[in-house]
Amino acid sequence: MKKLFKINLVLFSITAGLYLTVYLGMLFSMVLGAAQILMSLVILYYFKTLSKTTKILIAFYLILAASVLSLVYLNSVFDNILLYFGLPMLTALFHLYITYRIKIEK
Questions:
Q1: Among 38, 43, 35, 36, residue whose Cα is nearest residue 59
Q2: Which UniProt keywords apply (predicted)?
């Protein structure tokens, strides 16, 4: 479980760096999102061993991730920059925080 934070930190850092070239950042954010969803499945496997606060955070993250995916999928107009840049990165940052909490718990 401690390796999840390191992997997540590396992927998040690469994505943030690639956002300097907007196109590459957007492309790599899909890789980050897929990796974080896979990490969430691993976390769900160990769900019983987590603290109550972390359980609430991971449940909130899964709802948030589903909401962001729905918003991006349903909104076909690319005029809202916050929707396509801000929300996915804030969601990724929240997942990074959750993996950090798991790392310090174990």
A1: 43
A2: Membrane, Transmembrane, Transmembrane helix
If you compute the radius of gyration of the chain from its CA atoms, what whole number of angstroms results? Answer: 14
Q: What is the 3-state secondary structure (H, E, C) of the chain?
A: CHHHHHHHHHHHHHHHHHCCCHHHHHHHHHHHHHHHHHHHHHHHHCHHHCCHHHHHHHHHHHHHHHHHHHHHHHCCCCCCHHHHHHHHHHHHHHHHHHHHHHHHHC
**Structure tokens that stand for 100 in this block:** 């950090």
Note the pLDDT of residue 79.
61
Q: Tens digit of pLDDT for each residue in 71-89?
A: 777 776 556 766 777 888 9
